[in-house]
Design goal:
The chain has three helices and six strands; from the N terminus they run αβββαβαββ. By secondary structure, it is of the alpha+beta class. The protein has a single domain, classed as 3-Layer(aba) Sandwich (Aminopeptidase). The protein has a six-stranded mixed beta sheet with strand order 1-2-3-4-6-5.
Length: 144
């Protein structure tokens, strides 16, 4: 499945940066760049958004360049953000969603301890194709 997390298209970059600034300014999230340790190459990003201090919850997302798939970068980056979320932010719940056609992303979430909680029917449109999304949740009490 193609993605544009490494896009250099000026419109995509501007939209991405505006979203980062908005999350930082309104306190609704944080986005971190993922770099390969060996050479510092940007391989993608990992984000918390929909932060809700009252409910002590947030959503987790990530996007990696296709060349970085299958190397454990998403799992490693998400694990760091989850540790921060539960230890520093004192969150009780983190939620994530993935396209049902993206088995690799589902495996990342399951490796991190997320539990599949349901399916959102016709939730997303990717490259013009309507698809369902799986909803995953991770509770503080289940975080290892």
């Amino acid at each position: 499945m193609p993605n544009d997390c490494g896009s250099t298209d000026p419109t995509s970059v501007a939209r991405f940066m505006a979203g980062c600034r908005r999350m930082a300014e309104d306190g609704s999230g944080a986005r971190l760049a993922i770099e390969r340790r060996s050479d510092g190459t940007f391989v993608g990003w990992c984000t918390f958004n929909s932060w809700d201090a009252d409910f002590r919850s947030a959503s987790l997302g990530y996007c990696l360049k296709e060349a970085a798939w299958g190397h454990g970068y998403a799992t490693e980056a998400a694990r760091v953000l989850l540790q921060w979320a539960f230890d520093t932010l004192d969150l009780n719940r983190v939620q994530s969603e993935t396209d049902t056609r993206n088995g690799a992303s589902a495996r990342v979430l399951e490796k991190l301890g997320f539990v599949r909680e349901g399916t959102l029917r016709a939730d997303c449109i990717v490259n013009g194709a309507v698809s369902d999304s799986w909803v995953y949740g991770l509770l503080r009490r289940d975080w290892a």
